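Q: Convert this sequence to structure tokens.
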Amino acid sequence: MTTQKIIDFIAHNQPATPCLILDLDVVQENYEHLNAALPTAEIFYAVKANPDPQVLKRLSSLGSRFDTASVAEIKMAFAAGASADQISFGNTIKKESDIATAFDLGIRLFAVDCLEEVEKVARAAPGSAVFCRILTDGEGAEWPLSRKFGCVSEMAVSVLSHAHALGLTAAGVSFHVGSQQCDLTAWNRAILEARSIFAGMEEQGVRLTLLNMGGGFPTRYLKDVPTSAQYGEAIWSALTEHFGNDVPRLIIEPGRGMVGNAGVIRSEVVLVSKKADNDNVRWVYLDIGKFGGLAETMDEAIRYRLRTDKDGDDHSACIVAGPTCDSADVLYEKNHYPLPVTLKCGDEVLIEGTGAYTTTYSAVAFNGFEPLRAHVI
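A:
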């Protein structure tokens, strides 16, 4: 959302476009709301969503822990003030040398989803704790996750049993219900499946103690989304339904839901054109596109809210595209985007809800365009 703080920053500084402006106070509000909604869960912020040092430091000061995908992100979390026991290595695909480096840095909690990954952890990080990620269908998510991460529940029991046999602590289960998940029942299905794995391990004499419920908490784009309190109520109801009074240690890994609505990209219209004299659909080219940080418009999965100073004028259907010499750099074409008929070159366009997965997706010098600049305020 475009807060007054962001509006004032733009007015006073007129930062060159394209750029992201991110309001740290909104990040803090999101953390506090989620913490209040699920007070029994430990928040491990997904660093990949936005690793800006100021974001990480603010979250660390609030008590956040960190979910990391690489050694570089582990070091970022340390720089923000986190201790090793506040960091998990949540990527299921890790070089053995990176596991060893993380272990040397003090990390003792690792994600796995297959026997081979367990064996790497056992060799490079002996005695550590692991949790096994399981597949979910992602139904209800605007950015569903692929089959790249996780295994089926039946295999999870074998994976955790193998970890136990190799001297690792078989800690528990993790899942991710899909990014921008707006279906409150999605966690119920995944928690039920996780509970079956807890039961399967109990039959083998191994008691699991950890349930990592991943991310999926959304930010507001064009449509309203449920509140943190509604998510908390739905998730806690599912936990008590399936675990009763024996709820394990809980972890959640918000990324988008923590920083998405805290950021706004300031952009500029580069060109407005048509492909034929009788074409009813205009092409609006911005100075930012897929390769400048808006990769999540792929397949038009994430539909950002675009705001202009001319929103009170009549609107008509547009195709919105980026500035690069790549034909794939089109943001919205299948579903046309209504924009003011008076929009012209040089006009400012604010792209809301862009605090997550924009600066990190910004390619280095693709077509010579520099990576997306960020102003954290």
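The chain has two domains: 24-259, 261-376.
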